[in-house]
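Researcher: Quick test of sequence recovery. Tokens follow.
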């Protein structure tokens, strides 16, 4: 069995939904449909988690071998206004821990963005940090996991922040487009 570890926050956990509707489970279903039965998706989403929390949390998810690692953290850093430099440093530390344990692992980084309504340079710096990390680490990249979902009330729960079941399908599709290139 080849493990695909999706490590993230409430978006990965499928906040407010049954686990079956969260995008890691939708990816698992797609793998089965497409005949990639040797892959097992492990959804390691924790609502509210930040990149600094992820550094401490990643170790216990590395007990089993990881073939493909999808890093989908950072949204909560953005919401809290954590400096982009700190978020970048934390994401790098997580990537390093995974690669140190499994040197052959294939990595996908899920980018996050903050709405441009946030004043100042922060939104641009935050967006840029994911692109720079992807290039620096030579990893596969999803430019914006919430593309087309953010701000669309038909794809979000009543809180306007977390994707509903239809929104989770969009997150699964964004992830699948990049993931399918790494499957053998």
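Model:
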């Amino acid at each position: 069995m080849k493990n695909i570890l999706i490590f993230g926050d409430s978006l990965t956990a499928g906040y407010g939904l049954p686990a079956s509707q969260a995008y890691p489970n939708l990816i698992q279903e797609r793998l089965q449909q497409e005949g990639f039965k040797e892959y097992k998706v492990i959804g390691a989403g924790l609502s509210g988690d930040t990149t600094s929390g992820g550094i401490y949390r990643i170790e216990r998810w590395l007990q089993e071998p990881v073939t493909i690692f999808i890093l989908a953290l950072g949204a909560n850093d953005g919401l809290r206004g954590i400096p982009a430099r700190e978020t970048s440093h934390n994401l790098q530390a997580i990537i390093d821990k995974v690669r140190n344990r499994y040197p052959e692992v294939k990595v996908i980084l899920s980018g996050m963005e903050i709405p441009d309504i946030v004043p100042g340079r922060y939104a641009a710096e935050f967006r840029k940090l994911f692109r720079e990390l992807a290039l620096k680490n030579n990893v596969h990249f999803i430019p914006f996991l919430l593309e087309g979902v953010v701000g669309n009330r038909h794809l979000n729960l009543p809180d306007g922040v977390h994707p509903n079941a239809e929104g989770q399908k969009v997150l699964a599709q964004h992830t699948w487009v990049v993931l399918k290139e790494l499957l053998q």
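The chain has seven helices and five strands.
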